[in-house]
Amino acid sequence: MTSAALAIGLSLALSSGGVSAQTPAKGSPDHVKAVTSAVDGTMIRANTATSKDWPTTGLDYAETRFSRLNQITADNVKNLGLAWTYPLESSRGVEATPLVVDGIMYVTASWSVVHAIDARTGKRLWSYDPKVNREKGYKGCCDVVNRGVALWKGKVFVGVYDGRLVALDAVTGKVAWEKDTLIDKEHSYTITGAPRVFNGKVLIGNGGAEYGARGYVTAYDAETGNQAWRWFAVPGDPSKPFEDESMAAAAKTWDPSAKYWINGGGGTVWDTITFDPELNMVYIGTGNGSPWNRNKRSPSGGDNLYLASLVALNADTGKYIWHYQETPGDNWDYTSTQPMILADISIDGAPRKVILHAPKNGFFFVIDRTNGKFISAKNFVDVNWATGYDANGRPVENPDARSDKPFDSIPGPYGAHNWHPMSFNPQTGLVYLPAQNVPVRVVADKDWTHNANVPGRPHAGLGWNIAFNFDAAPPSSKPFGRLLAWDPVKQKEAWRAEYVSPWNGGTLTTAGNLVFQGTADGRFVAYNATTGEKLWEKPVGSGVVAGASTFMIDGKQYVSIAVGWGGVYGIMQRATETQSPGTVYTYVLDGKAPPPAFLKYQTEGLLAGVPYDPKHVGEGTLLYLSNCVFCHGVPGVDKGGNVRNLGYVPKDTIANLKDFVFKGPFRDKGMPDFTGRLKEEDIPKLQAFIQGTADAIRPK
Predict the structure, then answer these.
(1) Would you list the DSSP string of 246-295?
(2) Average pLDDT, the chain
(3) pLDDT in tens, 430-441
């Protein structure tokens, strides 16, 4: 063959499908474009059968977080080792589950920063910082976190802390479109949840019920960003036309005498959004009442629809279909925004399409997802606000739970289960559920009025409106954290793992008969899904709150977890003596990569030597409750989380407190500027409380 003929032959071979010419290099822009452009409803449903990729936050539309991958098993998980780590360059909470499509990973850090990573190597492809004003971190109750992104047809969607929804080009990270999702700027709305994309529409909700927000969920066209529909979770001002029939019906369950709409009503849709493509229904979970105290929100009572509810909407139009209210007339911050799972299970010998849900209130619910009918509910932790649910699906309440007397609600406002995702393994029939209790004793604030910044009211200086105060007497309930394996058919615990602290991470379960979970005390652990036997663990340097994902790359199964301690509990508490910046850890069988260095948590010893007048301690206590406690905790009593406890900072910091409170140096890290909120004469009072508390607990 002549050289010319050889060249022609090679050219023809390559043009007709030869690998070298047609297949872009893995991780190249052409490869990223090809694999992310293929993500749509068809791809997501097809991937459910293989679990090769992790294209949505819950893996599949049912959000089971059950992977059919079984290369890593209960027998060989002991050989799991580190493949690579990636620095997220963050010091606050990391709550996102990494999405992965053919080795291209997308994950978020705090402040809604998005990272695109080549999961074959752990190298950065790009990052996107939406430039949230760090001084506005106080506008959210629960850390400056983000629970991840959505993928659809070559775009990455992220909800930004300040209320924007942004579509990014999956290849470059450049902004394709951006929308402000907020209905007003008077209330402190935020976004911390992951968007979901169904039928070409991007759905996102908002947080802010503690601040007086009105809850809603909005759908936007994924291609253009144009608003498709919006559904409000609670009614607005009854003197104005209601948005739809569901709002007119809800208004009948509220007492208008207290003008609930001024304080928003609550019901914010800040996390779970799930989709059933067969029924074309979107399911949302709604948040707590605003304020928490129903006697102030709706004095004559009422269920206050649609607070603390599961709600089904038409995916195309947003029209209300049905609801089930898990906590009627919510009085305890018992949100229903916790992740839900769609499952097809057999109950009493008959197949049922159900929602499995474990909200804050401590009961595990099984609900018919075709019509919202109650099937069963059983408490998965001890509870004292109700004794159970009747046949109609209404709680049988403890009358003391609504009294104006001090009450240690069990579970407390942090919830028996918070946002940390649970998983469902159809092979074992079990749900793997992070359960907890964080004791909080509250008492009704009889003098509460909207937006009144009165010293002593919890976080009132930064906009909270809950109409409860914290009682001076300590709560009697005990804190705990545990992993529960729960049988939703028998409504019974199958096994449990106890932890040293509340606030442990979300779960992942696999066909390899495994459950993975990160812990508050800085471990990533694998259990036998059937028996609960602990099979493997590795230190990760910091408490873990997020859920893991698993995926295949070039024939190998990997497991990834994004680590970064935080959230509303993790701001001021911790269970580790080490800390590390936000980091993605990725594991593979026989991985040999070295772990990053862990740092000892910075403390200066118990604060001493700041001069103060003991007469100022009382006033300083009230000022501290209204402005500081939800970030810094109680000085010297709490250990400090991703924000330092003021009982363990250098003496000069507290001695010069004015320089930190007014236009201080930590504004770029999320500390508010208290100019206009506090007065200069308040500073000695705060110093007295901080140093006085440290002195009071100092060992004699």
Answers:
(1) HHHHHHTTS-GGG-GGGG-EE----S-EEEETTTTEEEEE---EESS-HH
(2) 95
(3) 999 999 999 999
Q: What is the pLDDT of residues 565-576, one digit of tens each?
A: 999 999 999 999
pTM value?
0.95
Candidate list 162, 276, 330, 333, residue with the active-site label: 333
Annotated catalytic residue 221: no
Tokens of 307: 């607070």
For the chain, count helices (H), then strands (E): 12, 42
Q: What whole-number distance in Å separates Cα of residue 338 and Cα of residue 269?
A: 10
8 A C-beta contact, residue 41 and residue 199: yes
Two tokens, residue 328: 């009627």
User: Whole-angstrom Cα distance, residue 201 to residue 314?
Assistant: 12
Tell me if 63 sits within 8 A of 57, measured CB to CB: yes
Peptide bond preceding 86: is omega within 30 degrees of 0, i.e. cis? Answer: no
Contacts (Cβ under 8 Å, ≥6 apart) of 21: 14, 15
What pLDDT digit, counting tens, does each position of 8-37 carry?
333 333 333 344 457 899 999 999 999 999
**How crowded is residue 180: how many other Cβ atoms within 10 Å of its Cβ?**
11
Amino acid identity of residue 687, one-letter, is Q
602 has a pLDDT exceeding 90: no
Can you tell me the distance from the alpha carbon of 15 to that of 22, in angstroms, rounded to the nearest whole number? 8
Contacts of 620 (CB under 8 A, 6+ apart): 684, 685, 686, 687, 688, 689, 690, 692
Single-letter amino acid code for the residue at 16: S
Positive or negative torsion for Cα 523, 436, 369, 319: negative
Of 346, 347, 365, the closest CA to residue 355 belongs to 365
Its sign, for the CA torsion 252, 254, 260, 263, is negative
Structure tokens that stand for 205 in this block = 């909700």
What's the CA gap between 380 and 536, in Å, rounded? 26
Which of helix, strand or coil describes residue 59?
Answer: coil
Helix, strand and coil in the chain, % to nearest 5: 20, 30, 50
Cα 647 to Cα 627: distance, rounded to the nearest angstrom: 16
Query: Phi, psi at residue 432, to the nearest 5°?
Result: -110, 110
Residues 151, 55 contacting (CB under 8 angstroms): yes
Three-state SS at 654? helix
Q: Which of 367, 362, 403 is nearest to 380 (CA)?
A: 362
In residues, how long is the chain? 700
* Number of other CB atoms surrounding residue 113 within 10 Å: 22
d(CA 47, CA 63) in angstroms, rounded, equals: 13
Helical axes 617-627 vs 683-697, angle rounded to 10°: 100
pLDDT at 21: 53
Note whether 229 and 219 are within 8 A (CB).
Answer: yes
CA dist 377 and 387 (Å) reads 11
DSSP code string of 115-156: EEEETTTTEEEEEE-----GGGGGGSSS-S-----EEETTEE
pLDDT band at 185 (very low <50, low <70, confident <90, very high): confident
Q: Report CA 572 to chain centroid distance, whole Å.
A: 17
pLDDT in tens, 639-683: 899 999 999 999 999 999 999 999 999 999 999 999 999 999 999
Please say whether the beta carbons of 397 and 363 come within 8 A: no
Task: Tell me how crowded residue 280 is: count the other CB atoms within 10 A of its CB.
Answer: 15
CA gap 583, 110 in Å, rounded: 11
Tokens of 451: 């937006």
The pLDDT of residue 604 is 84
Instruction: Tell me how far apart the alpha carbons of residues 301 and 503 are, in angstroms, rounded to a whole number.
Output: 33
